[in-house]
Amino acid sequence: MIKLTAAGSAERVAPLLLALILTALCGLPLAALLSHGVEGVFAAMEQARVLRALQHSLFSAAASAVLATLLGTCIALTLALASLRGRALLVFLLLLPMMIPPHVTAIAWTQALGPSSSVLSWLGISPVAGAQNPVHTVGGLITLLALQHFPLVLIIVQSSLRALPADLLEASRVSGASPFLTLRRIVLPLLAPSMIAAASLSFIAALGNFGINALVGVPARYTTLPVLIWQKLASFGPDVLGEVAAIATILALLALLLVLFSWWCLARARQTIPNAGATIHQVHRSHRGRPTLAECLLWGFVMIALGFPLLSLLSSALVPTYGVALTADSLTFSHFIAVLFEQSVTLRAFGNSTLVASLAALCIALIAIPLAFTLTRPSGWQRRLATASAIQADLSYAVPGIVMSVAFILVFLRPLPLFDVSLYNTLALIGLAYVAVFLAIGLKPVVSASSQLDEAMDDAARVNGASYLRRLTRIQAPLLAGPAVSGAILVFLTAYNEITVSALLWSSGNETIGTVIFNYEDGGYTTLAASMSVLVILATIVIMLMLRLLGKRLPVGVVPWA
Q1: Which of 66-70, 236-240, 289-293, 414-418 has the lowest mean pLDDT?
Q2: How far is CA 166 from CA 176, 178, 189, in A?
Q3: What is the value of pTM for the model shown?
Q4: How far apart are CA 513 and CA 450, in angstroms?
Q5: What is the 3-state secondary structure (H, E, C) of 520-534?
Q6: C-alpha–C-alpha distance, residues 21 and 161, integer Å
Q7: Which pLDDT belongs to residue 437?
Q8: For residue 383, what is the DSSP state?
Q9: How far apart are the first and last CA of the chain?
Q10: Contact 539, 482 (CB under 8 A)
Q11: Residue 200 has what pLDDT?
């Protein structure tokens, strides 16, 4: 047996360097938040406004999580068990709401159901002028949160269904059990841990959602914790950082507890569902004949949940003034021209978001390859260090984005030691926050691919004297380049559209697309907000289609809609 040579100095230094970088980006801000906020938590809880916002957050998040779980599970079961034509297109469209920014979702539905809705006007059912918009209610807020997050449930439940053996259903059918009995006694009990985990993650996403809570909750006079943090910091400035840190700490602790609970549930799901033989999603189903009831229901849901608000958004972007009916005479592209070529703030926002999201995606791809290489190597102190780094990245992603914004303000409000340079109110701070918050997204596909590589390749290279850097650049990097690009595109897409992280970090001259759309809508420039939103959605669809093409070369499940 050949004894492998000792790792070189680079192999020892690289994991340590990665751990230091990720601790500075992820661990240090969270630690600063806890150190500033823990002592003020009880004082904050005594304030009636904070307590009311906490109650609102818990109720809306819980109600939307229940609705999202029911909706996502029903759709996942239908996709897995029913005979459907165009299944791939259906999955793509059903997952699209998750990739559309929440503030765009709020704007689209507000315009779709308001008294000035062009689509409702075409149908002859537009509300009476001056009537309350049904979106601007507690029920509207909960429904929009559920529509935004049900794709998350769909992904998790679909993942569990991929591991559910088809033999169980066949045995149940042979035994004479009805489909409903099979679903109730076999399928749902096996899916229960995944459903609970999905509900927990949906709860966390709703708890930290800023766009919908702000654009819908504020008109409904239903303030939640993310909106309260934004209002306090935007109105009173850095002097209220202590109180804001305490409120953010409440959000962070709630999110972390639920993340741990969801991880436990997902671990239970992996232990519960056996993995042998053909699985449910691999069973052939005929697509011949007339459209089935399941097809009609799914396509009808897509048209209502996705087509209707997007059509309303487009119609608002194509009229001279919001409220004017869209006709051949009123049709205009002036708002698109203004957004793309005339408005300096929008041009700057597109440039800023493209630059920062691209650099963040590139940095994450460069970090993900060596980190995944170390994570999937045999046990040792390097792997334990890499695992600690990955956990910090997961926690930074799990904590609501607005909480991470507060944490970054606490760390970077003062000039950096030694350099005497302040990153506060700069694009660089937004970029660093993106790297910290979205690293987990870019790391997932790379780790998934790295775990499937044969360790013998790396062992053979080491036996032949190849250094760590040579093995990383000549073996690991070429094999992991595809997944790294896939993760980078996902990071770019998420960062390009986000508002939750940058809501507190942007400043004049450093606007992002999300903040400009939000400010346009908040300031009453509805047609400009609609035009920018349409462009963002088109960019989202193009990038998702690129990922779908790339997904054919990646492990199953890395790209959910592939």
Answers
A1: 236-240
A2: 16, 16, 15
A3: 0.85
A4: 34
A5: HHHCCCHHHHHHHHH
A6: 38
A7: 92
A8: H
A9: 43
A10: no
A11: 85
